[in-house]
Write a structure and sequence with these properties.
By secondary structure, the chain is an alpha/beta fold. The protein has one domain. The chain is 40% helix and 16% strand. It contains five helices and three strands; from the N terminus they run αβαβααβα. Strands 1-2-3 form a three-stranded parallel sheet. The protein starts with a helix and ends with a helix.
Length: 81
């Protein structure tokens, strides 16, 4: 990863939170972007206690990473989530 970063690449992890996402590697790799799987963010309202998503966002902030939610691309998507 160091070589890629030296050459200007950003490191992103996709589909975080589902399947074999190897969560133990996130602190080791310290990715620039954590892209949370759509399954973690679909079907709930902002008033629901979504502790898993909150934890990923907090972890990303501590690592200096950007947390993105797959499928949230427009204002309407936020309101529909």
């Amino acid at each position: 990863m160091t070589n890629y970063r030296k050459n200007g690449f950003l490191i992103a992890l996709d589909d975080v939170g589902v399947g074999h996402s190897n969560l133990d590697r996130i602190p080791l790799l310290k990715p620039d972007v954590l892209k949370l799987d759509r399954g973690l963010v679909s079907g709930w309202t902002p008033h629901d206690p979504v502790e898993v998503v909150k934890s990923f966002v907090q972890m990303a902030a501590r690592l200096g990473s950007l947390a993105l939610a797959e499928g949230v691309e427009r204002q309407e998507d936020i309101c529909a989530a």
